[in-house]
Amino acid sequence: MSLKSKALKQADNQQIRKQQREIDALKRKIEILDQANQDLEESLAKARSSRIKLPTQGKTRTSKGAFIRFFVPDSHGAHVDEAALKAMLADIEYLKPRQVVFMGDHLDCGGFLAQHQTLGFVAETEASFEDDVNAANQFLDSVQSLCPNAEMHYLIGNHEERIEKFIITQTLRHGRDAAFLMRLWGPAAVLNLESRGIPFYNKSETYAGCRVQGTIKLGHVFATHGTRHGKNAAAQMLNRFGANVVFGHVHKLLSFGDRNVRDGEMGAWSVGHISRQQPLWRHGDPTDWTQGYGFQIVQPSEDFLHINVPIIDGKSYLSSLGKLIS
Predict the structure, then answer these.
(1) pLDDT-derived band of residue 221, with 50, 70 and 90 as boundaries?
(2) Out of 66, 100, 219, 279, which residue is the most buried by the measure of CB atoms under 10 Å away?
(3) Which alpha helices (DSSP H) does 199-287 contain, by range?
(4) In terms of DSSP bridges, do strands 304-312 and 292-298 run parallel, antiparallel, or are they unpaired?
């Protein structure tokens, strides 16, 4: 091998060794960067992990023995809204309630019993008292046919009270005659409640230890027809009762909740109505009423979930929800 060839080979070897050193140096830098990157990722993961451990979601258990308690709102006899009634009856058939509470004002008692008559205005004479009674009996027949084994209760409303007031006036407050006519012509009589097996609760009496007349207690909730009006009716009823209470009368779907140191959380619910939205006696004054009803899912402990269901243009929104989740 010539001196020139040896010199070239030696130069090549030096170049190769230099390149190898550069490669080894790059590898070390890469290893250092990889380790730094790994340390950074671990540090970020540690920083992002919460020191607060929340419980994981458990399985939902359905309580055996839970049942439906249904509150039938004001229907007003011959002045019932047929589309709203049809929607509510379909939901009763679907829910199959074990308890049904008729909240009162299922007789409208218009005509000569009306309290809204003015000179020259005869809006409430559209239907006779006989029409009113027949409509209310058909209404009760429909509900009982859908849940024949349900426990039922009927609370008197201020419209049914018109009958007693009329009788007392006509008998000149003669107690025995008034009582006699009530047995013949009172709400319980004309609606055949005794033969139907439905207890009737009058506003002039107290029941089962309830100190408010015309009120019953079912588990952890009171039910009464109600006396309050306006958008704050639920708050007023809760303040008056100081306990869970469901009521009608106001023709609105309302709810109000509160809590106290003795009983904890409690609520008041107004369950709307299924009568006509714009009765003739309101003249041209648009009502702010809301059609609907209420029901409760009651646990064996008597704890319950109350749900108010709106009915808008003859459509129940419980049915809409059922279609959505089915």
Answers:
(1) very high
(2) 100
(3) 233-241
(4) antiparallel
pLDDT in tens, 91-149: 999 999 999 999 999 999 887 887 655 555 555 667 888 999 999 999 999 999 999 99
DSSP 230: S
| Residue 233, in any domain of the structure | yes
Strands 215-218, 264-271: pairing is: unpaired
Nearest-angstrom CA–CA distance, 209 and 121 = 44
CB 279 within 8 A of CB 123: yes
Domain count, the chain: 1
* CATH number of 279's domain: 3.60.21.10
Do the Cβ atoms of 237 and 222 come closer than 8 Å?
Answer: no
> For residue 54, how far is the Cα from the chain centroid?
31
10 in a domain, yes or no?
no
**Under DSSP, is residue 274 helix (H, G, I), strand (E, B) or coil?**
coil
Beta-bridged to residue 102, according to DSSP, are 72, 154
CA atoms within 13 A on the CB side of 242: 7
Quote the strand ranges of 89-180, DSSP E.
99-102, 151-155
Residues 292 and 314: beta-carbon distance below 8 Å: no
Compute the distance between CA of residue 275 and CA of residue 225 in angstroms, rounded to an integer.
15
In a domain, 29, yes or no: no
Instruction: Write 174-179 long-range contacts (CB < 8 A, 24+).
Output: none
User: Three-state DSSP class for 246?
Assistant: strand
pTM of the predicted model, to two decimals?
A: 0.80
Q: Is there a domain that residue 36 lies in? A: no
